[in-house]
């Protein structure tokens, strides 16, 4: 077999001595003028000849060779003209390079998806592939390659989830998408959970024209349908009606409104000259040791600033029940739940990928890019949340009986 391969390589016109001289002279190994490209061509053609030999040996009826067909094949070592042997009966189906296949392997597709997942435009990807490998890739081909991950996106969005997630964060991010010839705003709803092992996991992405409690109800229903039967604590921003939507699906879940969102919202109504003094008084509310001391600080805040900024004080009083849930917990749990900043890290990854995109051509083009962004950020989530073992043991005490089955207690 080795002799046959060597003979085929020699017949294919690959000259080892010439290739070595070219390499010494600075000729690249791969690319349009790569010294390895003729070798790859010779090896593939030798393998195809061997496949046809095996096929003809297995044939029951009379069959024989019938010339060769030719096509351009793209590989990471450069493009080359491949001659594929044919049989007279037309029953030969090559495997190493199948009929109509124009790339040598999946490596080019993996490279394209990797670059696309880093937020590169089709134009930049095409130029990058051309520079590295001397291969021309059209925008249509790039679209076809990236569209192949849509089935993975659909499977991922419908995958079964664990029965219990101790903590879940919900938030939305907004994009422009072309729809029926117009550019419209779309809200991407992101659900991030931490499982019993303390590892973060994006549970789902959902797309809607606007952010609203009614749509969040559909999101939560989907989580339930995919197997999530209990959530201990849900952390959300200050959207009106949000807690009610959560409680309708997960009535035993505690809802913690994001304190950071509440602070940002409040400062929109405070004049610049008062912000420093106002924040100094506001810190006494959300950094209090206990809920009771926080309420006293809120009363003091109202006495001092209520006349000037009644909207701000009214908002804190109205949302206090869900803003103050974290006070009952020790520092380890407080630090994790008082803000949705943990999900903001996912959204920062999204913005990094999409900052140069403008309006997306359609919903699929947005979803497939965000999916790749999630895969990128998930690879960094190798460690559980800090002090998770202690946090989980504390949650098991606060939510008595809710984790017994999963933790095999009792």
Characterization of the model:
The chain has 410 residues and is of the alpha/beta class. It has three domains: 2-104, no CATH class; 106-148; 162-398. Helices cover 50% and strands 17% of the residues. It contains 18 helices and seven strands. It has helices at 2-11, 16-24, 37-58, 107-117, 122-133, 139-147, 150-157, 213-225, 242-249, 259-267, 272-286, 291-305, 310-323, 331-337, 341-354, 363-378, 388-398, 404-407, and strands spanning 65-75, 78-87, 164-179, 182-194, 200-208, 230-236, 254-257. The strands form two sheets. It has a five-stranded mixed beta sheet with strand order 5-4-3-6-7, with helices on both faces. It has a two-stranded antiparallel ribbon with strand order 1-2. Strand 6, helix 9 (242-249) and strand 7 form a beta-alpha-beta unit. Helix 10 (259-267) runs antiparallel to helix 13 (310-323), helix 11 (272-286) packs antiparallel against helix 12 (291-305) and helix 12 (291-305) packs antiparallel against helix 13 (310-323). The radius of gyration is 30 Å and the shape is elongated. Mean pLDDT is 84; it is low at 1-11.
List the strand order in the largest sheet.
5-4-3-6-7
* Largest sheet report: 5 strands, mixed
Helix content: 40-55%
Order of helices and strands: HHHEEHHHHEEEHEHEHHHHHHHHH
Inertia-based shape: elongated
> How would you classify the helix and strand content by structural class?
alpha/beta
What fraction of the residues are assigned to beta strands by DSSP?
Answer: 15-25%
Instruction: Give the termini distance in whole angstroms.
Output: 66 Å
**Residue-averaged pLDDT, rounded?**
84
* Poorly predicted tracts of residues: 1-11
- Counted by DSSP, the helix tally is 18
Report the radius of gyration as a whole number of Å. 30 Å
């Amino acid at each position: 077999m080795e002799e046959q391969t060597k003979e085929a390589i020699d017949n294919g016109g690959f000259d080892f001595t010439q290739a070595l001289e070219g390499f010494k002279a600075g000729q690249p190994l791969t690319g349009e003028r790569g010294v390895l490209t003729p070798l790859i061509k010779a090896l593939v053609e030798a393998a195809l000849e061997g496949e046809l030999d095996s096929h003809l040996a297995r044939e029951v009826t009379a069959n024989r060779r019938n010339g060769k067909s030719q096509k351009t094949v793209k590989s990471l070592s450069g493009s080359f003209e491949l001659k594929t042997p044919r049989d007279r009966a037309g029953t030969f189906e090559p495997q190493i390079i199948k009929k109509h296949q124009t790339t040598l392997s999946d490596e080019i597709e993996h490279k394209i998806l990797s670059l696309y997942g880093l937020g590169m435009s089709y134009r930049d990807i095409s130029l990058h592939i051309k520079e590295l490998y001397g291969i021309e890739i059209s925008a249509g081909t790039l679209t076809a390659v990236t569209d192949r991950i849509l089935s993975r996106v659909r499977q991922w969005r419908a995958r079964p989830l664990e029965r219990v997630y101790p903590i879940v964060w919900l938030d939305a991010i907004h994009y422009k998408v072309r729809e029926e010839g117009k550019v419209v705003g779309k809200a991407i709803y992101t659900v991030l959970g931490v499982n019993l092992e303390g590892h973060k996991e994006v549970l789902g992405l959902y797309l809607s024209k606007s952010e609203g409690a009614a749509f969040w109800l559909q999101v939560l229903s989907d989580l339930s349908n995919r197997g999530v039967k209990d959530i201990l604590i849900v952390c959300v921003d200050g959207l009106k009606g949000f807690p009610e939507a959560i409680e309708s699906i997960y009535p035993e879940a505690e809802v913690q409104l994001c304190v950071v969102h509440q602070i940002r919202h409040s400062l929109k109504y405070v004049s610049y000259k008062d912000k420093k003094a106002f924040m100094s008084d506001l810190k006494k509310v959300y950094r209090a040791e206990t809920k009771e001391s926080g309420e006293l600080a809120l009363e003091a805040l109202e006495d001092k600033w209520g006349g000037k900024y009644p909207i701000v004080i009214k908002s804190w009083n109205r949302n206090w029940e869900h803003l103050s849930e974290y006070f009952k917990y020790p520092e380890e749990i407080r630090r994790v739940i008082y803000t949705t900043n943990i999900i903001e890290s996912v959204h920062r990854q999204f913005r990094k990928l999409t900052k140069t995109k403008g309006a997306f051509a359609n919903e699929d083009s947005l979803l497939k890019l965000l999916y790749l962004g999630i895969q990128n950020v998930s690879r960094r989530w190798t460690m559980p949340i800090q002090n998770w073992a202690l946090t989980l043991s504390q949650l098991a005490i606060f939510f008595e009986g809710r984790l017994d089955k999963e933790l095999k207690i009792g």
